[in-house]
Amino acid sequence: xxxxxxxxxxxxxxxxxxxxxxxxxxxxxxxxxxxxxxxxxxxxxxxxxxxxxxxxxxxxxxxxxxxxxxxxxxxxxxxxxxxxxxxxxxxxxxxxxxxxxxxxxxxxxxxxxxxxxxxxxxxxxxxxxxxxxxxxxxxxxxxxxxxxxxxxxxxxxxxxxxxxxxxxxxxxxxxxxxxxxxxxxxxxxxxxxxxxxxxxxxxxxxxxxxxxxxxxxxxxxxxxxxxxxxxxxxxxxxxxxxxxxxxxxxxxxxxxxxxxxxxxxxxxxxxxxxxxxxxxxxxxxxxxxxxxxxxxxxxxxxxxxxxxxxxxxxxxxxxxxxxxxxxxxxxxxxxxxxxxxxxxxxxxxxxxxxxxxxxxxxxxxxxxxxxxxxxxxxxxxxxxxxxx
Length: 388
Hints:
The chain is about 25% helix and about 30% strand. By secondary structure, the protein is of the alpha+beta class. The chain has 2 domains: about 10-160, Jelly Rolls, CATH 2.60.120; about 170-385, Rossmann fold, CATH 3.40.50.
């Protein structure tokens, strides 16, 4: 997210929209947008002040009313990048988002949520979004408990190169990840590595919960395409909020969330496994018996910001703090070694990074558990670094 503070509302309403670099504009609407704007409607809060269910996130505090935009047709190639730009002003932190839909009009579970930041001035946002398999259109929206104003929406197709440059511009504003130890990597992913180098089509299915969804939404796909210019990568996000392998091991769920998607590489991740290591084992065994694809197990990044913070003010930097290792992560690591599947320990890398970042409490989060663009970008960089 890039923030550009403007001096007046007139400056924003009258300026020419320049977000993005591509000429492939799919949707553009200038001026202030309300529920009276053509194609936009307001959807009231489902349970003000209470808890609501979102398939991609599970049960979480209600995010407020939603100003929902029209369906914007996506491109014929489902695995594309889009830039969603707008100007916004909000009294408190709230959310922007994108939902994709299929040919039947059904909303695809794997949505995209991130932050709009509170402020007195209007701020400009440029966001990159990766497409979804089977999607023919997307809905942009903003959502807030106390209200949010929005102007000058534009959605356009951009290249993977432009997406990676957007990732870079965000990453340069963050504390850098420490160097990755020179340990053996990609040992159990020879076909994946070969396919990325030679340009063979590769279907990568990411299985898990809302944390996997956030990781997927980091746009790390563009970083891998930069690393492997010949690669023909198709990424599919197969998630259900609050759900882990205890759910996906059931035959009917395994079929719809895994085998029907025909992965060449299955990435199993998230933080909602209920510490059921046997369920992860069962899913790995089912993959080997029924599909035979390569497998990577990831421990979960993100989750709650566990640091002690005192005031909790977003502007107060914190001292370095140290994460207590999670015994379940060690169980996952041992299981991966036993079953000879790739293991990416995102949890340890993420929490060590968070503890030494010195950034304010919740600076990397959009709510109590999920990442904003900053948090998601670090998750994506961990994957990129591992797969180099």
